Structure to design on (328 residues):
Protein backbone atom coordinates (compact mmCIF):
# COMPACT_ATOMS: atom_id res chain seq x y z
CA UNK A 1 0.00 0.00 0.00
CA UNK A 2 1.70 3.11 -1.17
CA UNK A 3 -0.67 5.57 -2.82
CA UNK A 4 -3.70 6.70 -0.88
CA UNK A 5 -6.57 8.85 -2.15
CA UNK A 6 -7.90 11.19 0.53
CA UNK A 7 -11.23 12.60 -0.61
CA UNK A 8 -12.07 15.72 1.37
CA UNK A 9 -8.41 15.96 2.34
CA UNK A 10 -8.50 19.78 2.44
CA UNK A 11 -11.05 19.76 5.28
CA UNK A 12 -10.43 19.74 9.00
CA UNK A 13 -10.06 16.03 9.74
CA UNK A 14 -8.99 15.18 6.17
CA UNK A 15 -6.04 17.59 6.27
CA UNK A 16 -4.83 16.00 9.51
CA UNK A 17 -5.06 12.60 7.83
CA UNK A 18 -3.07 13.89 4.88
CA UNK A 19 -0.38 15.27 7.20
CA UNK A 20 -0.04 11.91 8.99
CA UNK A 21 0.16 9.90 5.75
CA UNK A 22 2.79 12.28 4.36
CA UNK A 23 4.74 12.00 7.62
CA UNK A 24 4.63 8.19 7.31
CA UNK A 25 5.96 8.26 3.74
CA UNK A 26 2.81 7.49 1.75
CA UNK A 27 2.09 9.06 -1.63
CA UNK A 28 -1.05 11.05 -0.98
CA UNK A 29 -3.52 12.34 -3.52
CA UNK A 30 -6.17 14.71 -2.20
CA UNK A 31 -9.45 15.15 -4.09
CA UNK A 32 -11.47 18.09 -2.80
CA UNK A 33 -13.91 20.57 -4.33
CA UNK A 34 -12.69 23.22 -1.82
CA UNK A 35 -16.30 24.05 -1.01
CA UNK A 36 -15.60 23.85 2.72
CA UNK A 37 -11.93 22.79 2.57
CA UNK A 38 -8.83 24.99 2.27
CA UNK A 39 -6.07 24.39 -0.26
CA UNK A 40 -3.58 25.82 2.27
CA UNK A 41 -4.34 22.87 4.57
CA UNK A 42 -2.99 20.36 2.01
CA UNK A 43 0.71 19.97 2.69
CA UNK A 44 3.04 17.55 0.96
CA UNK A 45 0.31 15.92 -1.17
CA UNK A 46 -1.00 16.31 -4.71
CA UNK A 47 -4.31 18.19 -4.80
CA UNK A 48 -6.87 17.57 -7.52
CA UNK A 49 -9.74 20.02 -7.31
CA UNK A 50 -13.06 18.45 -8.21
CA UNK A 51 -16.26 16.99 -6.86
CA UNK A 52 -16.50 13.34 -5.82
CA UNK A 53 -20.04 13.28 -7.22
CA UNK A 54 -18.48 13.82 -10.65
CA UNK A 55 -17.70 10.33 -11.98
CA UNK A 56 -15.55 11.68 -14.83
CA UNK A 57 -13.41 13.59 -12.31
CA UNK A 58 -12.88 10.47 -10.20
CA UNK A 59 -12.10 8.40 -13.32
CA UNK A 60 -9.34 10.88 -14.16
CA UNK A 61 -7.90 10.72 -10.63
CA UNK A 62 -7.99 6.90 -10.51
CA UNK A 63 -6.40 6.73 -13.99
CA UNK A 64 -3.67 9.25 -13.17
CA UNK A 65 -2.51 7.61 -9.92
CA UNK A 66 -2.06 3.94 -8.87
CA UNK A 67 -4.47 4.25 -5.93
CA UNK A 68 -4.17 1.40 -3.39
CA UNK A 69 -6.79 2.58 -0.89
CA UNK A 70 -9.30 5.37 -0.27
CA UNK A 71 -10.09 7.43 2.80
CA UNK A 72 -13.30 9.35 2.22
CA UNK A 73 -13.95 12.49 4.29
CA UNK A 74 -15.83 14.40 1.58
CA UNK A 75 -19.23 15.33 3.05
CA UNK A 76 -21.35 18.07 4.53
CA UNK A 77 -21.40 17.77 8.32
CA UNK A 78 -23.57 20.44 9.96
CA UNK A 79 -26.36 18.84 11.95
CA UNK A 80 -28.59 21.94 12.09
CA UNK A 81 -28.22 22.67 8.39
CA UNK A 82 -29.08 19.05 7.59
CA UNK A 83 -32.42 19.40 9.39
CA UNK A 84 -33.23 22.54 7.36
CA UNK A 85 -32.05 21.04 4.06
CA UNK A 86 -32.08 17.22 4.03
CA UNK A 87 -31.86 17.06 0.22
CA UNK A 88 -28.52 18.85 0.37
CA UNK A 89 -27.20 16.23 2.81
CA UNK A 90 -28.52 13.09 1.15
CA UNK A 91 -27.69 14.62 -2.24
CA UNK A 92 -24.07 15.37 -1.44
CA UNK A 93 -23.12 12.69 1.06
CA UNK A 94 -24.90 9.65 -0.36
CA UNK A 95 -24.37 10.56 -4.01
CA UNK A 96 -20.68 11.24 -3.32
CA UNK A 97 -20.29 7.81 -1.71
CA UNK A 98 -22.08 6.07 -4.60
CA UNK A 99 -19.80 7.84 -7.05
CA UNK A 100 -16.66 6.94 -5.06
CA UNK A 101 -17.60 3.26 -4.75
CA UNK A 102 -18.42 3.14 -8.46
CA UNK A 103 -14.97 4.50 -9.32
CA UNK A 104 -13.34 2.04 -6.89
CA UNK A 105 -15.21 -0.88 -8.44
CA UNK A 106 -14.31 0.22 -11.97
CA UNK A 107 -10.64 0.71 -11.10
CA UNK A 108 -10.21 -2.39 -8.94
CA UNK A 109 -9.59 -0.59 -5.61
CA UNK A 110 -10.93 -2.68 -2.72
CA UNK A 111 -10.32 -0.78 0.55
CA UNK A 112 -12.10 2.28 1.93
CA UNK A 113 -11.98 4.01 5.29
CA UNK A 114 -15.11 6.07 5.63
CA UNK A 115 -15.96 8.97 7.96
CA UNK A 116 -19.08 8.09 9.88
CA UNK A 117 -20.38 9.71 13.03
CA UNK A 118 -21.79 9.24 16.51
CA UNK A 119 -24.89 10.90 15.04
CA UNK A 120 -25.76 7.47 13.55
CA UNK A 121 -26.89 6.43 17.06
CA UNK A 122 -29.34 9.27 17.68
CA UNK A 123 -30.52 9.31 21.30
CA UNK A 124 -28.43 6.49 22.84
CA UNK A 125 -29.95 3.57 24.73
CA UNK A 126 -27.04 3.40 27.18
CA UNK A 127 -23.55 4.75 27.91
CA UNK A 128 -20.88 4.13 26.82
CA UNK A 129 -22.21 3.49 23.33
CA UNK A 130 -21.13 0.29 21.56
CA UNK A 131 -21.13 -0.35 17.82
CA UNK A 132 -23.88 -2.95 18.23
CA UNK A 133 -26.25 -0.48 19.93
CA UNK A 134 -29.38 0.79 18.20
CA UNK A 135 -28.78 3.23 15.34
CA UNK A 136 -31.69 5.62 14.98
CA UNK A 137 -30.40 9.01 13.81
CA UNK A 138 -32.30 12.09 14.88
CA UNK A 139 -31.12 14.28 12.00
CA UNK A 140 -30.52 13.93 8.23
CA UNK A 141 -26.75 14.28 8.65
CA UNK A 142 -26.58 11.13 10.79
CA UNK A 143 -29.17 9.43 8.57
CA UNK A 144 -27.11 10.14 5.44
CA UNK A 145 -24.03 8.58 7.07
CA UNK A 146 -25.99 5.53 8.23
CA UNK A 147 -27.39 5.11 4.71
CA UNK A 148 -23.81 5.06 3.41
CA UNK A 149 -22.84 2.46 6.01
CA UNK A 150 -25.61 0.29 4.51
CA UNK A 151 -24.30 0.92 1.02
CA UNK A 152 -20.79 -0.05 2.16
CA UNK A 153 -22.05 -3.30 3.64
CA UNK A 154 -23.79 -4.31 0.42
CA UNK A 155 -20.85 -3.19 -1.73
CA UNK A 156 -18.59 -5.41 0.34
CA UNK A 157 -20.85 -8.40 -0.32
CA UNK A 158 -21.37 -7.67 -4.01
CA UNK A 159 -17.99 -6.30 -5.12
CA UNK A 160 -15.57 -7.30 -2.36
CA UNK A 161 -14.83 -3.69 -1.43
CA UNK A 162 -13.91 -3.86 2.25
CA UNK A 163 -14.51 -0.92 4.59
CA UNK A 164 -14.06 0.55 8.02
CA UNK A 165 -16.82 3.01 8.96
CA UNK A 166 -15.31 5.18 11.67
CA UNK A 167 -17.95 6.73 13.92
CA UNK A 168 -16.36 9.89 15.29
CA UNK A 169 -17.42 11.43 18.52
CA UNK A 170 -16.28 15.08 19.05
CA UNK A 171 -13.12 15.85 17.09
CA UNK A 172 -11.00 18.79 18.26
CA UNK A 173 -7.38 19.97 18.51
CA UNK A 174 -4.85 20.69 15.79
CA UNK A 175 -1.49 19.60 14.42
CA UNK A 176 0.90 22.22 15.74
CA UNK A 177 3.87 20.66 13.87
CA UNK A 178 2.15 20.85 10.47
CA UNK A 179 0.52 24.22 11.22
CA UNK A 180 -3.00 23.09 10.38
CA UNK A 181 -6.21 23.37 12.38
CA UNK A 182 -9.95 23.87 12.41
CA UNK A 183 -11.48 26.60 10.23
CA UNK A 184 -15.23 26.29 9.60
CA UNK A 185 -17.57 28.94 8.24
CA UNK A 186 -19.78 29.24 10.13
CA UNK A 187 -18.17 27.72 13.24
CA UNK A 188 -20.68 25.75 15.30
CA UNK A 189 -18.41 23.52 17.42
CA UNK A 190 -17.91 24.16 21.10
CA UNK A 191 -14.10 24.17 21.48
CA UNK A 192 -13.33 26.61 18.61
CA UNK A 193 -16.15 28.86 19.78
CA UNK A 194 -14.78 28.86 23.34
CA UNK A 195 -11.31 29.72 22.01
CA UNK A 196 -12.67 32.48 19.78
CA UNK A 197 -14.18 33.95 22.95
CA UNK A 198 -10.77 33.59 24.66
CA UNK A 199 -9.24 35.53 21.76
CA UNK A 200 -11.87 38.27 22.10
CA UNK A 201 -13.40 37.45 18.70
CA UNK A 202 -16.70 36.72 20.46
CA UNK A 203 -17.85 38.51 23.58
CA UNK A 204 -19.07 35.29 25.22
CA UNK A 205 -19.83 31.60 24.79
CA UNK A 206 -23.48 30.56 24.85
CA UNK A 207 -24.08 27.43 26.93
CA UNK A 208 -26.93 25.66 25.16
CA UNK A 209 -29.00 24.56 28.14
CA UNK A 210 -28.13 23.85 31.78
CA UNK A 211 -31.16 21.73 32.61
CA UNK A 212 -30.02 18.40 31.17
CA UNK A 213 -29.98 15.30 33.41
CA UNK A 214 -26.19 15.51 33.93
CA UNK A 215 -24.07 16.38 36.98
CA UNK A 216 -23.89 20.13 36.20
CA UNK A 217 -26.92 20.29 33.88
CA UNK A 218 -24.91 20.82 30.67
CA UNK A 219 -24.43 18.30 27.85
CA UNK A 220 -21.65 15.75 28.09
CA UNK A 221 -19.57 14.80 25.05
CA UNK A 222 -16.56 12.61 24.30
CA UNK A 223 -13.76 14.79 22.86
CA UNK A 224 -11.06 13.15 20.80
CA UNK A 225 -7.86 14.70 19.46
CA UNK A 226 -7.89 15.02 15.67
CA UNK A 227 -4.37 13.52 15.54
CA UNK A 228 -5.58 10.46 17.43
CA UNK A 229 -8.45 10.24 14.94
CA UNK A 230 -6.01 10.35 12.01
CA UNK A 231 -3.94 7.60 13.63
CA UNK A 232 -7.05 5.39 13.85
CA UNK A 233 -7.68 5.82 10.11
CA UNK A 234 -4.16 4.68 9.32
CA UNK A 235 -4.55 1.63 11.57
CA UNK A 236 -7.91 0.89 9.92
CA UNK A 237 -6.38 1.05 6.45
CA UNK A 238 -3.56 -1.30 7.50
CA UNK A 239 -6.13 -3.61 9.10
CA UNK A 240 -8.12 -3.77 5.84
CA UNK A 241 -4.91 -4.34 3.91
CA UNK A 242 -4.20 -7.37 6.15
CA UNK A 243 -7.60 -8.73 5.17
CA UNK A 244 -9.50 -7.50 8.25
CA UNK A 245 -13.26 -7.79 8.36
CA UNK A 246 -15.40 -4.78 7.40
CA UNK A 247 -17.50 -2.95 9.96
CA UNK A 248 -18.10 0.12 12.12
CA UNK A 249 -15.69 1.37 14.80
CA UNK A 250 -16.34 4.04 17.42
CA UNK A 251 -13.59 6.63 17.73
CA UNK A 252 -13.83 8.39 21.05
CA UNK A 253 -11.74 8.66 24.19
CA UNK A 254 -14.25 6.88 26.39
CA UNK A 255 -14.39 9.90 28.72
CA UNK A 256 -17.16 12.48 28.90
CA UNK A 257 -16.86 16.20 29.66
CA UNK A 258 -19.68 18.69 30.15
CA UNK A 259 -19.92 22.03 28.35
CA UNK A 260 -19.08 23.76 31.65
CA UNK A 261 -16.03 21.52 32.13
CA UNK A 262 -14.81 22.39 28.64
CA UNK A 263 -15.11 26.11 29.33
CA UNK A 264 -13.37 25.70 32.70
CA UNK A 265 -10.51 23.71 31.15
CA UNK A 266 -10.15 26.31 28.40
CA UNK A 267 -9.93 29.07 31.04
CA UNK A 268 -7.13 27.14 32.72
CA UNK A 269 -5.23 26.41 29.48
CA UNK A 270 -5.55 29.93 28.02
CA UNK A 271 -5.44 31.98 31.24
CA UNK A 272 -8.36 34.02 29.82
CA UNK A 273 -11.64 34.68 31.62
CA UNK A 274 -13.95 33.41 28.76
CA UNK A 275 -17.37 34.84 29.66
CA UNK A 276 -20.21 32.30 29.37
CA UNK A 277 -23.97 32.84 29.30
CA UNK A 278 -26.64 30.16 29.63
CA UNK A 279 -28.91 30.12 26.60
CA UNK A 280 -31.81 27.87 25.53
CA UNK A 281 -31.17 24.27 24.50
CA UNK A 282 -30.17 23.62 20.89
CA UNK A 283 -32.71 21.39 19.17
CA UNK A 284 -31.68 17.76 18.75
CA UNK A 285 -28.76 17.66 21.22
CA UNK A 286 -28.64 14.35 23.14
CA UNK A 287 -27.69 14.92 26.80
CA UNK A 288 -24.75 12.49 26.91
CA UNK A 289 -22.65 10.86 24.16
CA UNK A 290 -19.71 8.74 25.32
CA UNK A 291 -18.01 6.11 23.17
CA UNK A 292 -16.99 2.65 24.08
CA UNK A 293 -13.72 2.43 22.12
CA UNK A 294 -13.12 -1.19 23.08
CA UNK A 295 -13.55 -2.51 19.53
CA UNK A 296 -11.08 -0.01 18.02
CA UNK A 297 -8.57 -0.83 20.77
CA UNK A 298 -8.92 -4.60 20.44
CA UNK A 299 -9.33 -4.96 16.68
CA UNK A 300 -7.29 -2.04 15.32
CA UNK A 301 -4.79 -1.74 18.18
CA UNK A 302 -5.70 1.95 18.56
CA UNK A 303 -5.13 3.93 21.72
CA UNK A 304 -5.93 7.64 22.06
CA UNK A 305 -2.73 9.36 23.24
CA UNK A 306 -3.89 12.91 23.99
CA UNK A 307 -6.26 14.05 26.73
CA UNK A 308 -8.57 17.05 27.03
CA UNK A 309 -5.94 19.58 28.13
CA UNK A 310 -3.74 18.64 25.19
CA UNK A 311 -6.71 18.90 22.82
CA UNK A 312 -7.53 22.39 24.03
CA UNK A 313 -3.87 23.48 24.21
CA UNK A 314 -3.25 22.41 20.59
CA UNK A 315 -6.46 24.06 19.41
CA UNK A 316 -5.40 27.21 21.29
CA UNK A 317 -2.00 27.24 19.54
CA UNK A 318 -3.80 27.09 16.19
CA UNK A 319 -6.35 29.81 17.02
CA UNK A 320 -3.74 32.15 18.45
CA UNK A 321 -1.53 31.76 15.38
CA UNK A 322 -4.45 31.86 12.92
CA UNK A 323 -7.15 34.11 14.40
CA UNK A 324 -8.79 34.28 10.95
CA UNK A 325 -8.20 30.61 10.13
CA UNK A 326 -6.62 30.12 6.72
CA UNK A 327 -7.70 33.64 5.80
CA UNK A 328 -9.70 32.61 2.71
N1 LIG B 1 -22.48 23.88 22.60
C1 LIG B 1 -22.72 24.98 23.38
N2 LIG B 1 -22.44 26.20 22.85
C2 LIG B 1 -21.92 26.38 21.61
C3 LIG B 1 -21.65 25.23 20.81
C4 LIG B 1 -21.94 24.00 21.34
O1 LIG B 1 -23.19 24.87 24.50
O2 LIG B 1 -21.71 27.55 21.21
C5 LIG B 1 -22.73 22.55 23.17
C6 LIG B 1 -23.69 21.72 22.35
O3 LIG B 1 -25.01 21.98 22.74
C7 LIG B 1 -23.22 20.30 22.67
C8 LIG B 1 -21.72 20.45 22.93
O4 LIG B 1 -21.52 21.84 23.16
O5 LIG B 1 -23.82 19.86 23.84
C9 LIG B 1 -20.88 20.05 21.74
O6 LIG B 1 -21.39 20.68 20.58
P1 LIG B 1 -20.66 20.63 19.19
O7 LIG B 1 -21.50 21.41 18.22
O8 LIG B 1 -19.24 21.01 19.35
O9 LIG B 1 -20.68 19.09 18.82
P2 LIG B 1 -21.92 18.09 18.71
O10 LIG B 1 -21.78 17.14 19.87
O11 LIG B 1 -23.21 18.75 18.56
O12 LIG B 1 -21.61 17.45 17.29
C10 LIG B 1 -20.64 16.49 17.11
C11 LIG B 1 -20.10 16.58 15.70
C12 LIG B 1 -21.19 16.31 14.69
C13 LIG B 1 -21.84 15.01 15.02
C14 LIG B 1 -22.32 15.00 16.44
C15 LIG B 1 -22.86 13.65 16.83
O13 LIG B 1 -19.55 17.84 15.46
O14 LIG B 1 -20.65 16.26 13.41
O15 LIG B 1 -21.23 15.26 17.32
O16 LIG B 1 -23.91 13.83 17.70
F1 LIG B 1 -22.92 14.82 14.22
Amino acid sequence: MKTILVAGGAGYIGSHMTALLVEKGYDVVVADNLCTGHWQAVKGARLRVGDVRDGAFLDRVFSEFPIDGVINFAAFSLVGESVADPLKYYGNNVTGAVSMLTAMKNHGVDKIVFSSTAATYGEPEKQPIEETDRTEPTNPYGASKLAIEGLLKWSDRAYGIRYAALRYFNAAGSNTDAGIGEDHHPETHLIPIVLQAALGKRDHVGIYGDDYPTADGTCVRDYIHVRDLAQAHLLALEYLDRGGESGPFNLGSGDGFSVKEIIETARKVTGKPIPAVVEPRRAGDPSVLIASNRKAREVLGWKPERGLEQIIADAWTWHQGHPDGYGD
In short: The CA atoms of residues 41 and 180 lie 6 Å apart. The chain has a mean pLDDT of 97. Residues 77, 79, 117-119, 141-142, 170, 188-190, 193, 205-208, 219, 221, 259, 282, 285, 289 surround UFG (CB under 6 Å). The first strand starts at residue 3 and ends at 7.
